[in-house]
Amino acid sequence: MGLSLKNILKPALLRPAAILTVLLTAAFLLPACRTASSPSVSSTEVRKTKSKAVTARLSRDGQRLALRFRLKGRDAFALAETGAGSIRALTFYPDASKLNRAVGKGARSVPVLGSTAWQSLRLALAERLAPVSEREGTLLLGGGNELIAHRRGGQAKFTDLTQRPRGLRITRRLTEAQLRAEVFQDRGGRIDIPGGISGPVLFLTGRFPELVFLDRPAQNMVFLSVPSNEAPVLPIGDLKAGRNMARQLKSFIWRSHVLAALRNPFSSSARMAVSASSMVSAALHRFLVSLPAGPVPPLSHEPEMDPGEWRRTLTGIADCPPSKATLRFRIGGDAFFPDFVQAVQEAKRAVDLQMFIFDTDDYAVGIADLLRRRAADGVRVRVMLDESASLTAAAAPPNSPMPADFVPPSDIQRYLRQDSPLQLRTTSVSGFTASHTKIIIIDNKLAWLGGMNIGREYRYDWHDLMVEVRGPLARRIEKDFAVSWARAGWGGDIAALRQQLARITAEAEAIPVPPGAIDVQPLYTSARQSSIARSQLEAIRRSRRAVWVQNAYLSDHAYILELIRARHRGVDVRIVMPADNDNGIMAANNRALVPLLRAHGIRIFLLPGMSHVKAALYDGWACVGSANFDRLSLRVNNEFSIGFDDPITVDRLRKDLFAKDFARSRELKDPKPLTPADEIMAGFIRSLAGQL
Fold it and tell me: What are the residue ranges spanned by the domains of the chain?
């Protein structure tokens, strides 16, 4: 991935310093806005097109589908990839020449059926999947949709998850792979394709996604979508983009520094001091490091670090005592977001969200609509977000297709507040720092923490992790939210101090310890707390058997140095990185770093796509949360993570996350030669890290 401004603008690494740099560069050097080429057919046209006006040809290997749309006065030509995948965007071409080459000789015609046939198939599927009881439903996850199959008045139907009828209980959940099996299997009665078609067939749905390709012999189902007519590459060059930039500058200069200095004089000054000192420390690091010499030893067979001794050490590092909680890992958007949506729907008193990013894509707007409805129902809904990060995220379109006729709101803050009692506050980026924490609390008793923000990328595109928390730790997380909420208001530091000293309510104090609860250690990064960095560096030093890390942004040199030293003690050090990093600079950083890590015996695994997971295992101790393994997360930002050493819970993370991701990754044994840009980055890394 190149070092393009588009990649820098991708939302996972929306650092305040990078934001300001990009904005100023764009404002002075790039006055024109480039856009991707528009498709020659709109979503509306496809939805209205009759099946007789569409021809389809499938390549012999079944991987590519060539489409011709006969429209009024013109033809439109598109190519679709039909391999494994949830939802794919059509690629349009000016003529059929490239399509003919793509599908090759021997391509076969595919029958095309209209929306009536598709609705017939949907109803047959709903009839199979809907439970008999009208108080129960089956949740289907696929094709960019979250649908419930249920019955009303005896008739089977589909309803969007966000519109779940009150009292309807989800009793079964089907992933896209399971849904595909239901479509093609004959158990419980075969779902026949209208017209008796037994081979590949293409449906026009009349809705989003606009087409569905089914191939019963190959057991393949792919949803196809028409891309939007205009996709911005840089958020500048038109009135809307100019307003976005103006809001960015206002947020960064006025709110994050002028107003923040007035409302939060103590915390803002501390954050700026910590930010400056961390940059000086990073610059001096090159003179302080010393790498192990000699060959890399074989893996050690020593016992893992002593849990009791580690707990005593962690007590001296942590900023607060451990809390009891049950932990459930939600790996991927399919596992987390449906649970989150249902919890918001069932909330009785309060919903609190602190997010780094609240995007403006169709999925984020759907979540915003749900939050607004619950606020209108009388539930107290509070949303806290990073304004600069959210504005910048809105300028970068997601990877997966959205409905082409979807019009995003110009400002998610205004959208959330409009005609709604929902409460919203923004966090500042004083001193080039950010509130990177992601936490959600429902009714003061159920909480989530981890890496996911609110947006389509986190729901459909990226590999990520959230942790469900129940028990007294949820009370601690709610307390942290209340302090941050107070600091983000007009009372600033004084209000935050009062909230910090306030007694916990009797209701919160009464949260019972659930069965199976374990000791969980809260860990923080802030201007006055550094327990995330200190605990993990010390955990690496004490590890004797294995250190497994998964993160996209590995750039803190003290952390990298300890990983290398651990490997030279015989520790099994493995790192999972994304094959397609969302940030161009960090992608180049990782490519430049790999030869160094490989030279010191560290195993590197490239996970397909983008992984936004922040997780690590140090022998029998695990740490997960919002913090990346870079300078900002470990030294500067506001971050929240948790550590735990319960053997059963650690083993579950080892098996469900790391073992599965190792299995579907490609181990990088012979890295490709570095590009000139990577060589520059490698030199930069060496200059910062001395002998590194």
Answer: 254-285+322-518, 519-688
**For the chain, how many residues are written?**
692
Task: Look at residue 306 and give its three-state secondary structure.
Answer: coil
User: Are the beta carbons of 688 and 285 closer than 8 angstroms?
Assistant: yes
CA distance 658 to 147: 30
Residue whose C-alpha is closest to residue 56's, from 233, 221, 214, 185: 214
Write down the architecture of domain 254-285+322-518 according to CATH.
2-Layer Sandwich (3.30)
Backbone angles phi, psi at 527, to 5 degrees: -65, -25
Q: Note whether 617 and 653 are within 8 A (CB).
A: yes
Same fold, 254-285+322-518 and 519-688: yes
| CA dist., res. 241 & res. 231, Å (int) | 12
Nearest Cα residue to 471 out of 532, 503, 519, 438: 519
CA distance 625 to 137: 32
DSSP SS3 for 591: helix
CA atoms of 514 and 519, how far apart (whole Å): 12
DSSP letter for each residue of 606-652: EESS-B---EEEETTEEEEES--SSHIIIIISBEEEEEE--HHHHHH
pTM comes to 0.88
What does the DSSP 8-state code read for residue 291?
-
**Can you tell me whether residue 575 is helix, strand or coil?**
strand
**Cα 104 to Cα 61, 66, 101, distances in angstroms:** 10, 10, 5
Per-residue pLDDT tens digits for 118-164: 999 999 999 999 999 999 999 999 888 899 999 999 999 999 999 99
Judge contact between 442 and 350, C-beta under 8 A.
yes
Overall fold of domain 519-688:
Endonuclease; Chain A (3.30.870)
Per-residue pLDDT tens digits for 572-612: 999 999 999 988 888 888 888 898 899 999 999 999 999 99
Q: What is the mean pLDDT of residues 351-378?
A: 96
AA identity, residue 557: H
CB 574 within 8 A of CB 548: yes
